[in-house]
Design goal:
alpha+beta, five-stranded mixed barrel, two-stranded antiparallel sheet, 3 helices, 11 strands
Length: 185
């Protein structure tokens, strides 16, 4: 089972350094310039918000910003676990909400095994732009184990794996399309 990486994990900084060093050369859009604070991890607490959907963090945060002001912070949720005897680290692209220096993860957890977890390790990284249309591209998972890394579409046998960054196509939910007045362009 993958759990949020503990803030004091002795291998966390090595994992972060490798992720932040990736040039993301196959990004479908021009990369954003890094922001102050990018690459510096911290714990962020979950808050429950009615109507928000799992795996739709980018849209949930944009809706939350419309409703409550603040900012959307893009980056990565950081997880770790043991798979087949190997300690594995995974970065999943994610967005959180910030207002007046207070951070919150407004997106419900998809994995039932960790829905009870109230604090996650988050790494701000503004480099990857996320489209704000009905069909958009999202970063794949970054996986790091024993000094090696790859990008992957998942953690199962039928997942696509690549040494180079790649994106997958996602479709906005009806909730996001309506709330954000998204277009298909």
């Amino acid at each position: 089972m993958m759990l949020p990486v503990p803030i004091n994990d002795p291998n966390l900084q090595t994992f972060i350094d490798r992720l932040m060093a990736d040039k993301l050369v196959a990004c479908s859009s021009p990369l954003n310039a890094p922001l102050p604070g990018d690459g510096v991890h911290f714990a962020v607490n979950k808050i429950k918000v009615k109507g928000y959907e799992p795996l739709r963090c980018h849209h949930n945060c944009r809706v939350h910003k419309l409703r409550h002001q603040g900012n959307v912070i893009y980056g990565w949720n950081l997880y770790s676990g043991v798979i087949e005897g190997n300690h594995v680290y995974v970065a999943q692209h994610h967005a959180i909400w910030e207002n007046n220096g207070q951070f919150a993860d407004v997106t419900p957890e998809y994995d039932e095994q960790i829905r009870h977890v109230q604090s996650f390790t988050f790494l701000p990284d503004n480099r990857v732009p996320i489209g704000h249309i009905v069909t958009f591209k999202i970063p794949s998972l970054f996986i790091y184990c024993a000094g090696m890394y790859c990008w992957a579409s998942g953690l199962s046998d039928d997942s696509r794996f690549s040494k180079d960054y790649f994106e997958t196509i996602a479709t906005s939910s009806d909730f996001a399309i309506q709330a954000l007045n998204l277009s298909s362009r």
